[in-house]
Amino acid sequence: MTIAPYSLLNNTAVTGSVYKNNIDNNSVAAQRIVGRFAPHAQTSPNMTIMLDAGSLFDGTTLTEKTAQSTGTITAPASHPRIDRVVIDNVTGVASVVTGTEAVSPTPPAIPSGKSPVAQILLQTSTTSITNAIITDERNFAALSPGGFGAQGSISSASTCDLGSILSRNVMITGTTTITSFGSSAALTSPIYLIEFTAALTLTHSSNLLCPGLANIVTAAGDTAIVEYLGSGAWRIRTYQRVSGKPLVSSTPTYQYLTSGTTYTRPAGVTSILVEMVGGGGGGGGYGGSRYDGGNGGATNFDTIYAVGGGGGGGFSSTAYPGPGGTGGSGSADKRRAGQAGSFIAADSTTGGNSEMGFGAAGTVTGGAASSAAANSGGGGGGGASGSGSINSSGSGAGGEYARKLISSPASTYTFNIGYGGSAGGGTNPGGSGGSGYIEVTEYY
Questions:
Q1: In Å, how far are 47, 94, 120, 130 from 44, measured between CA atoms?
Q2: 8 A C-beta contact, residue 441 and residue 252
Q3: Per-residue model confidence as pLDDT tens digits over 106-150
Q4: Among 224, 248, 407, 438, whose CB has the most other CB atoms within 10 angstroms?
């Protein structure tokens, strides 16, 4: 390209010929900037438009694009229409985005990865495109190497190459684990804004340095600022969870499971401690016949089970207390049998305790025994006549306790809360056992 010096114009300080030359020189000097992808009609107008030459720089590579024409544009059939001419932010190639016909048309949206150049107002009678119907709307802010630009989109992949799109404001879609952000980014503009649309894993390594030196499990709406360090290495400078919870925290959170069937792990949790008890057994009842209490139901979290406590025996010639829950299946780190129920002649028979709750009191002078509290895993009290003879019933037992520390937990687990054993009937009925319970401690 021909070059010339640029000078301030001053028609009172220079002669006519010098002033004219200065105008010519200024036009030459400004051409590369002012004429960059400038839109205009063809020398002999037709149904295409011309874009002058222009350049693109992504911080590493300078791309020179020669003057180009658009493809043929067709006139609308029934109502006016506004078409939009855009260029690709990487290649500089022009394309036309066709608008929608309407009595009062509006321009179509600018596609992701494109920059606007011109609008063309077309009538049904248009047979050639002149400058009178072209509106220059060049805006190349997204091409500035120091800016973040409009948000672009890229699919997650093992190598999710951020440098492959010009915008440094990136939405990452999909759920594929990411181990690298690629090596095509420019060190002159190394900072990227990132938003995630789904849960995926960012794998910590020397090429992807994560805060806390640990993998990150993303959630939809999480955002991050990352920096390219060169040679394929990246550092996550900041990470913000949409939940507002810290990425790395020494303070655990808790979930108390008393009903439902599905546990969902919060984003960022690296391990969970699961503690549970089975349901407590029901207390036996008194009333001349034998009214046994029901056994408590088992509580489980995934494949780990805690057995419910046994129900107390109703009064007969001899009564018996419920046996403590024990013998659950699954790979628990610790188990403890529930406390057995009790039996004392003509006296209160208190239900057995669980590791996470107390059993209920029985009755002494007649009337119904107490039921254990919900989600305690405690046994129900046994009924008694209070006559001073061996005519009381056994109380229910506490449910089994089980504990498991799970590292790298799954996103969801199924669980079930064991039911409390039913109360034995009769004149002086026993108490119901308390239902089971699960407590999950979540570590980040």
A1: 10, 20, 17, 9
A2: yes
A3: 999 998 778 899 999 999 999 999 999 999 999 887 665 556 777
A4: 438
Which residues, other chains included, contact 12 with Cβ-Cβ below 8 Å and sequence gap of 6+? none
Give the C-alpha separation, 176 to 10, whole Å.
Answer: 63
DSSP 205: B
Query: Any idea what the Cα angle at residue 254 is, between residues 248 and 255, rounded to 5°?
Result: 130
pLDDT 10s digits, 145-194: 556 777 889 999 999 999 888 688 999 999 999 999 999 887 767 899 99
- What pLDDT sits at residue 44? 96
CA dist 97 and 175 (Å) reads 31
The pLDDT of 260-266, averaged and rounded, is 94
Query: Which residue, among 22, 119, 26, 4, has the nearest Cα to 73 in the 3D structure?
Result: 119
pTM: 0.50
3-class SS of residue 102: coil
Nearest of 253, 247, 250, 257 to residue 216 by alpha carbon? 247
Q: How far is CA 290 from CA 92, 164, 200, 427, in A?
A: 91, 79, 59, 11
Q: Which residues contact 89 (CB under 8 A, 6 or more apart)?
A: 56, 113, 114, 115, 142, 143, 149, 166, 167
d(CA 144, CA 233): 23
Hey, where are the domains in the chain?
A: 16-142, 152-240, 249-444
As beta bridge partners, residue 40 has 50
How much is the mean pLDDT over the chain?
86
